[in-house]
Amino acid sequence: MVQPEARYWFCDRFSRHFLGFHAIAGAFNFGGINNNISFLGTDFSRLKDNRYQGYAYGAGVAYGFAFMLSEHINLELEAGFGYMYLDYEIFDCSDCGRRIGDGGHHYIGPTKAAINLVFLF
Known about the structure:
The chain is mainly β and 121 residues long. The protein contains no helices and seven strands.
């Protein structure tokens, strides 16, 4: 996944509160995950018997706070919420199999959670 972000700092740059606006893009290929999880309208238990391969696109907004640890080092905490569209193909089993369909999924929910250690020049 690639997740570039532009930030608006409320006070000084690289210090204290900020808003981030991020884009999301990436490819995925996963399956064979045994679970019983259903979260925000997404049933992850289907990952047990099938493999999903495709692309994801989206955008979101995040809030964060930067703690100045020293003159050149910051610690950032950040959480984001947004939208993603997943375009995928479904395969018969988790590690092999024939293509049995395709689909798309709209996701609205958390898109970012980060703890960043930042070095400032």
